[in-house]
Amino acid sequence: MRDTRGVVHDAASTGFGAEASRYQSARPRYHPDLVERFVDQFAAGQIIEIGAGTGKFTSQLVAAGISPVAVEPVESMRAILAADHPDLDVRPGTAEAIPAEDNSFDTIVVAQSFHWFDYEAALDEIERVVRPGGHLVTVWNVKAGDSDWYQRYMEIIDRYADDTPRHADMRWRRAIDNDARFETVDDWHIDNSQAMDREDVVSRALSTSFSRPAERYEGDRCERPPRGADRRRHSTPLPLPG
């Protein structure tokens, strides 16, 4: 039997483990056009989602009539996902040790989590599990903004990041692009504005993996965000195994 334990980054297991409920409530939904595009182009056959978290993307797939296998290593996040979707096949596991047989899925989707992976080991596993001609789809909500308060907000957040893996460092993307077994077949973006009040902004900050209890942020201040000032962009690089 395959070892499906894998390794979970300390920041993810500790931060998300303690703040799974906050993550579920604070993190945004994905743009419905993105979900529709995924379903139209990549939902044929068997689908597995790796690093499914609390099921932010999973839930939207289920609402669209898709039932992926969902894999999540952090127990508290997986518990929320399983409770919300009791009929879904939810499995413990990691990208480096995917709990699936060889060549068993047509699409592997990773929403908001590829940056946590051990890239080389994960891509080996993805290549093992995906069927010939199948797809690896990465999906992202990316924070964006140019207002003064937003820049100050990000300065505060960045202060606590240390060397935590993040989407913004793009190491995850370079790892995929540099792997000759994969080629990019699509790269699509859409703006996804989200209105946020002060409580929303605080909750979003505390849902970050490297965040700490609110008292750690004492003394950090930024202007009150105007409604609708936070914008997020979805990005879906879609490499195809060669």
Give a brief rundown of this model.
The chain is an alpha/beta fold. It is 35% helix and 23% strand.
Can you offer a commentary on this structure?
The structure is a single chain. The protein contains 9 helices and 7 strands, in the order αααβαβαββαβααβαβ. It is of the alpha/beta class. It has a single domain, classed as Vaccinia Virus protein VP39 (Rossmann fold). A 7-stranded mixed sheet has the order 3-2-1-4-5-7-6, sandwiched between helices. Strand 4, helix 6 (119-129) and strand 5 form a beta-alpha-beta unit. The radius of gyration is 18 Å and the shape is globular.
Oligomer: single chain
**Count of helix runs:** 9
Low-confidence stretches: 1-5, 11-18, 212-242
The main sheet comes to: 7 strands, mixed
User: Widest sheet: strand order?
Assistant: 3-2-1-4-5-7-6
| General shape | globular
Question: Strand share of the residues?
Answer: 15-25%
Q: Number of domains in the coordinates?
A: 1
Task: List the keywords.
242 residues, alpha/beta, Rossmann fold, seven-stranded mixed beta sheet, 9 helices, 23% strand, disordered N terminus
